[in-house]
Fold these 2 entries.
Entry 1:
Amino acid sequence: MTINNIAYIDLQAQWTTEKKDLLKIIDNVMSSGQFVGGKYVDQFEKKIAKFCNVKYAVSLNSGTDALTVALHCAGVKKGDEVITAPNSFISSASVIAHLGAKPVFADVLEDQNIDPEEIEKVITKKTKAIIPVHLTGRICEMKKINKIAKRKNIVVIEDAAQAIGSKYYNKMSGSIGHIGCFSTHPLKNLNASGDGGFITTNNALYAKRIKKLCNLGIINRNIVEEFGYVSRLDNLQAAILLYRLSKMKDVIRKRRNNVDFYMKNLDKNHVFYPKEKKYQFNTYHTFVIQVRERDKLRNYLKKKGIGTAIHYPIPIHLQPAAKKLKYNKNSFPVTEKQSKEILTLPVHQFLSLKQIKFITDTINEYFKQ
Ligand SMILES: *Cc1c(COP(=O)(O)O)cnc(C)c1O
């Protein structure tokens, strides 16, 4: 990767650095003949539970399935309501609808995370669960959210798909609510080479039921206790994830260093980004800035060979799929304003200091014109 060809994400660079090790690992799994489930799946679940500082982790097919099964396990069904953020990836809302429940949105704060006060306003007797999304890898105000949930006897399901390794004070993401949901999609910080995900919890009953639900509800080989899902992690993906998990601390350190450089050097008169709060240790799946005339800056960067992205340009409540929910423009002013101003800069662990500097200088230079 050259200075004027900076990708927003760089999976080729990852393969180049890991190829020698991964080819051996892949050979191992292929020779074992164990593909669905297997020893690497078991090992991964143990190691990731330890990493997230929870008693139990159950691996499955995707972050989306993690959310579906978590909601199912929390008893969410037809007629219930589940509160989440309108600025998330579409999964957080679509899983609610799939279970026959109603997605109810609450607007976000300037840091793009759900506003606990807005949650209070939309709670009803039908509210069964809250899904706070640790967007960009920035941890939500969990103490306030948990307090509201406890008072109303509501289940808190963390969407931690973007936040592996992030902390609320010293609590790991996925260990703060009742259940944590993670994705190991190729674009996430801990990534498989295909779809994958896992659920974390300290609740033994939840863990046992989730494990069962993910394997069609089967126990003891032939007894189906309840109708479930086919959502399992492949042994091959588990082996790859185990290998990458061993490098996770380094990945987090590099990403945080990159963000640190941006924060110190970007032109603060034109570029807004939320600072890390006292309670946050963020692992930055993405680094999102907020700027006026975002599309112009994006084009300028593109011309200079710098890849960026927008997470996400159309809020969920304004998607055609959400029409039935009867929200409209101005339903969530903060989310809608941010959707026009947010820009995701490259922050991945394979960027060189020279490249980060080039990106920073180019942005600052744009605002000087
Ligand atoms: C990626 C993501 C998901 C879904 O994960 P998949 O593994 O792609 O199904 C859910 N929520 C958020 C916030 C995500 O970023």
Note: Residues 93 and 103 are 6 Å apart (CA to CA).
Entry 2:
Amino acid sequence: MEYTFPVTRTANPKPRPADETQLGFGKLFTDHMFLMNYTEGQGWHDGRIVPYGPISLDPSAMVFHYAQELFEGMKAYRTPDGTVQLFRPDKNIERMNNTCDRLCVPRIAPEVALQAICQLVDIDRDWIPHSKGTSLYIRPFIIATDPMLGVHPSKTYIFCVILSPVGSYYAAGINPVRIMVEREYVRCVKGGTGLAKAGGNYAASLIGQKKAEESGFAQVLWLDGIHRKYIDEVGAMNVFFVIDGVVITPDLTDGNILPGVTRRSCLEILKKWGLPVEERKLAIDEVLQAQQEGRLNEAFGTGTAAVISPIGELYDCGRSYIVNNNEIGPIAQRLYDAIYGLQTGVLEDDMGWTYKIG
Ligand SMILES: *Cc1c(COP(=O)(O)O)cnc(C)c1O
């Protein structure tokens, strides 16, 4: 790929983290970031790579008041032969533009967004950690910058990409998590922004997460906002259940499920393996009843951060429902090995999902 964005290199490179076991998630950032401006009438312009640092905005900038903000999340991985690769970046960029449509933000040409990400990762490639399970998290985001308080779509925006070396999610092994079914709050409703990767969705979900943590649970299982019956997502991950050997995940038709790249990849791999898969509405009662009858084989969340996060326990209305003896199930394990293997270049990419940088 030919890179064309102008680069201003930092005069003060930061020391790289010496101990990769202490990276955690999203705590450290690399030396550079990508910026691009949008001005109505002019379009997206002045893409550039500059030293990582604060962005100065007018206090009246719209993003601070009406949350016209969206983001993406993806990773760059170091492969055994030393190359650096992305996993299905076209899917993230397509989703970013779909989120733009929902939030009245102007789209970015996919090739421009991809070039921005690739050139930035290439410049900061020495920041990609080496230990097993680590990666470079990529956070593209767009904010509305018009300095005015009238409620309407902004006429100016900033597109920014920052990079963060992140640690192994499963340094201590893949341990199933305890999940609380959330009956009070909802993450989104049909017709809302559930399908968009918008910061506002996260702001609305914090209270459920806080409540769950205070009660000793890792995450909440969200139910739909209208019937309070159908399963939505688990925390900020898509969710899968295996009942009687059939893999079931909520379908995207109502627009209240975030179309995860990991979700999609799981579905495509499961179909390739010839396992029975259903995308449909799934009531919480169906899941809990299946557990009571010994037919709930597995439950797990999917997302870029963890790939697969097995659910060991569901807690609802004072009752605890243990899943698969609180162990990771065979389908979750097999999916994890397949997707993680592709992402990190340990397995040969027979799906055409990886994208090499540099
Ligand atoms: C990002 C996200 C996911 C997971 O999507 P991936 O592309 O698999 O990382 C799921 N749910 C929500 C709410 C998200 O924001």
Note: The radius of gyration is 21 Å.
